[in-house]
Design goal:
- It contains five helices and 27 strands.
- With 466 residues, the protein is mainly beta.
- The protein folds into two domains: 355 residues, TolB, C-terminal domain (Neuraminidase, 6 Propeller), CATH 2.120.10; 92 residues, no CATH class.
- It is elongated and about 80 Å long.
- The chain starts with a helix and ends in a 7-residue tail after the last helix.
């Protein structure tokens, strides 16, 4: 009788994560959550709006997860790819799944030198190039980045293939799971858990992976069990998001660091860092959502309490303007992630990964930069978009903080540029101010000082004002 009760409890716990059924056709905002369990029924749930709606059940031990970009650059909406972390002797494997509801899955590459692989290594840190032609991941046992040519097949069917594996010079720790993402179609970003001296951001050129470029040290400290991930999607934000976690002496450390990689004086600089050690269990992978949030998978092992918390959500778009910019980053606070996906009686998952469906976005096809609109400077516009606003484009990858807009303006508080200074300028400025687009003094931020400077001009206009 006792054995029956135990078996029933185990089955109930499994059902809590998998009873919904097989994969559903993906929608924007869906999460693929790799729990790395030995059961095909629980290893890869499909989460929508905080609840499970399906599960990819054709392969077990799926961990690091990533949708490919068959709908366009940075779209994260095609085949679902995942990594089986693997074993010391056998190495890891790369998996490809359907995303159209067919519940198809297959192994498309084995990191096993005895089975035709480039090396025998356990594997993590999966990412797909914006143009959908390459895959990158990082060897747990080698500390090297692996790059493979990728053929997706028909979008969403999972019938993908990889060829022509390349390997970088050693640049990361061995014995830690570490993340990769793509800066552009030909450059991988790797985030190495460096230990007590800090973590390290590298770029790896596809044309010459043996010569990676050191970019910067990120201020993290730790040893023990370390885990990093890195996310970049310029369709959502111009910044790189770097997650570092460490578990040592029964203490969790989670650091989320935001990096600006753009050219100019701000190239590869840290612009924000918050601590999530209290609000988040030991962090694993991260993914940006189209809703302006960062989703974070986390430790949910046997020692984690019930209900199991698998995913947290961190809001990044505080003013809800659809762009994650410096104004939003200034509002980030420590321990501000909130529980997003929890399961009562859920299965244990010590190491896991995730990705979020983003969908097609009209970006990534043309470079962006700063645009001078008279006294205003606006970041992240294409040349065409800038000129459509009768602005002056400052060059690809330029940023407003490095630009001085020199267009002569006779009356800077004639906000709507109708050559008449009146109450409409005041109302238009107020609307822009509360929309966080009123950087009157051009210091790169919309603050109360812009409000005071505008009022100073409005109530005591220069003689050049009409």
């Amino acid at each position: 009788m006792k054995r029956c009760l135990v078996a029933s409890a185990v089955l109930a716990a499994a059902a809590a994560t998998s009873a919904v059924g097989q994969e559903q056709p993906i929608q924007n905002g869906d999460i693929a959550l790799g729990l790395s369990t030995n059961s095909t029924g629980t290893t890869l749930p499909q989460v929508r709006a905080g609840s499970q709606v399906g599960s990819w059940t054709s392969q077990a031990f799926a961990q690091s997860a990533e949708f490919d970009n068959c709908d366009g650059p940075f779209s994260h909406s095609g085949n679902l790819l995942a990594l089986n972390f693997g074993t010391t002797a056998g190495g890891g494997t790369l998996l490809s799944f359907s995303s159209n509801g067919a519940n198809f899955g297959q192994v498309i590459y084995a990191f096993n030198a005895g089975n035709g692989g480039i090396a025998t290594t356990r594997i993590g840190g999966l990412s797909v190039s914006p143009d959908n032609t390459r895959i990158a991941c990082l060897g747990y046992d080698t500390g090297q980045v692996y790059i493979l040519d990728y053929t997706p097949g028909q979008c969403g069917q999972g019938m993908a293939a990889v060829t022509n594996p390349l390997v970088s010079a050693g640049l990361a720790n061995t014995g830690d799971t570490q993340g990769t993402t793509w800066l552009d179609d030909s450059t991988v970003i790797a985030y190495s858990a460096g230990g007590p001296q800090g973590s390290i951001l590298w770029t790896v050129p596809v044309a010459d992976p043996n010569n990676p470029t050191f970019q910067m040290i990120v201020n993290t400290t730790g040893a023990g069990s370390q885990f990093t991930d890195v996310e970049y999607n310029p369709c959502i934000s111009p910044y790189i998001f770097c997650s570092y976690s460490n578990f040592e002496a029964n203490v969790t450390t989670n650091k989320l660091t935001v990096i600006d990689p753009r050219a100019g004086s701000g190239a590869w600089t840290q612009v924000a860092q918050i601590d999530l050690s209290v609000s988040l269990q030991t962090g694993r992978e991260i993914a940006l959502g189209r809703d302006g949030a960062l989703y974070l998978s986390e430790f949910a092992g046997s020692t984690a309490p019930q209900p199991k918390i698998y995913v947290d959500r961190l809001n990044l778009d505080f003013n809800s303007d659809g762009v994650i910019d410096a104004i939003d980053l200034a509002l980030l606070t420590d321990n501000s992630s909130i529980d997003y996906y929890t399961v009562s009686g859920g299965v244990s998952s010590s190491f896991n990964g995730l990705d979020v469906v983003v969908g097609r976005q009209e970006c990534g096809t043309a470079p962006t930069g700063a645009c001078c609109l008279t006294v205003l400077c606006v970041d992240n516009l294409t040349r065409a978009a800038c000129e459509a606003k009768t602005g002056v484009y400052q060059g690809d990858q330029t940023v407003c903080r490095d630009v001085v807009c020199t267009i002569p303006v006779l009356c800077p508080c004639d906000w709507n540029r109708d050559l008449v200074l009146n109450s409409q300028d005041f109302f238009d400025f107020i609307a822009a101010f509360f929309g966080s687009g009123a950087d009157y003094n051009m210091d790169g931020m919309t603050t109360s000082q812009d409000f005071f400077d505008f009022l100073g001009c409005f109530f005591a206009p220069p003689i050049t004002c009409p």
